[in-house]
Amino acid sequence: MRCLLIALIFTLFATPAFADDAAMNRLVADYDAYALSQNPIEAGHEGDRKALSRLPDVSPGQETLRKSAYEEFKARLNAIDPAGLSDEARLNRAFLAWTLDRRLQSLAFDEDRLPFNSDGGFDQDLNYLAATTNLDTEDDARAWIARLSAAPRYYADNIDNARRGIAARFTQPRMTNEVVLARAKAAAATPPEADPLLKPFTGAKFAPDQVAALRAEAIAVIRDKVRPAQRDFAVFVEKEYLPASRKALGVRSLPGGEAYYRWLVHDHTTTDLTPDQIHAIGLSEVARIRAEMQGVMAETGFKGDLPAFIAMLRKDPRFYATSRQQLLEKASEIAKRIDDKLPRYFATLPRLTYGVRPVPAEIEETYTTGRYFEGAPKLGIAGGYMVNTSHLDQRALYELPALTLHEAAPGHHIQIALGQELQGVPAFRRHADATAFTEGWGLYSETLGLEMGIYRDPYERFGKLSYEAWRACRLVADTGVHWLGWSLDQARACFTENTALSPLNIEVELARYVSWPGQALAYKVGELKISALRKKAEAALGPKFDVRRFHDAVLLAGPLPLDLLEHRVDAWIAAEKAGA
Fold first, then answer.
1. Which residues does 314 contact at the CB level (< 8 Å), separation at least 6?
2. Which terminus of the chain has fewer CB atoms gathered within 10 Å of its CB, N or C?
3. Per-residue pLDDT reduced to its tens digit, 1-44
4. Same domain, 239 and 314
5. Range of the domain at 74
6. How far is CA 322 from each of CA 311, 362, 389, 528, rounded to the nearest angstrom?
7. Nearest to 136 by CA among 355, 379, 383
């Protein structure tokens, strides 16, 4: 795959005189239209109002049709000679080749058989949509009610997919299924009048009497359609899925699991690194970061060793907020300090804003410490920096600058919102889930915070290093569990010995890595590549290096597989040298 991408990559600044892009442009337009027809959530974000009333079709029959469609698109793509294409068309060709191969591989492994994990899943999709849906008109409200009405089929199809997993012994482990069961039971027991699925009606812009009437209609749909589907799901998990839990934690233990994990590593990192190579990188990074931690600890004047320092950080009340509001306000203050610095480091910034919001109460117990919810510029929805305000004694303030840099700005919000606003870039690229790029950028942004002056004392810089060690330990733990057959205690040791993460955070994260294999590898692998590309550019350009232009080079083509990113940056370096 790597060689194919390199062979297909465009030369960014040397457009052929007679580019023949017509066939490629038609193919891209056809693929965009097809992909959006299959994903009503993305289509809605693109401004398709009709899509706002639908949920994805995940039935096995539809997946068979998708496979045929992807194969047809691939045949059309292979018939197009890249030699006569313009630079942008070559990039589209290379990116679409990567996308189609990825879709076909996912179908080959029948990933729909694992439709949920400890971090989320299909049963959380409506809650996510409720948190990111605005009702500006009565039509918007009716679309939301129609989307709620689609829940029974959506649940039934996902349950059928999970049953295929049971039949093939391709299931999640018991520790994951117990979390999912608790989540399912809690959802099924929620009174319809208090359901978080009613959130869109708060702040609805049309006539209050009509809002009340449509809200009552939504409550009836939740009671009569959504709630039975949720109860069926809870019964399924308890009676069928939990007893069929896989015995081992690692995905390698599943039928075909070795090939599946190798592919997950490739898919999430967009590299050809092997699980063993990634494990070794993780160990090396942990050792490097730990040495830096020792130096920062010395700056504080602490008189003990590193374990004692970490123990102090986990217990000292001065490092913890005393109320949910205080934690949100602290995160907001950091976010605005970062915003104040952005123009000095970024030549191009998005128009879309973001808010600082609490993680919804219904999911906060098993949710990570922070997350980004992408906005939708065409629907008037801002991005959301989500802060988990539960268990305040587990949410250290010295970690908050790094978290904010990663999840809000200049991390996920800047990268994702810029991608959403790109002009002339196909939707399939703007919505691409190139995990190593997106999460690598988030982790790179944490380090960029040093240059920006966001970390104001050694404790916050230690928090930054702790977060970086956390991502390095992910390389160790994910490959340890899923490739080397480690126990949970073996995986936990890396985090407890080398980070200042709270015990609760560690347990939530471990549950996530066990149930979502490979995803955790993307962060450090992506960050190492972006950092290496910056160092390469600085060395090549010397005083001509401009960090603002470098960030444009990285961000303004949308998320890219790391091979394509490297060639784009190389072309930018060549152009900068030439004075273009």
1. 396, 500, 502, 503
2. C
3. 444 344 444 334 344 434 579 999 999 999 999 999 999 999 99
4. no
5. 2-108
6. 19, 21, 10, 36
7. 379
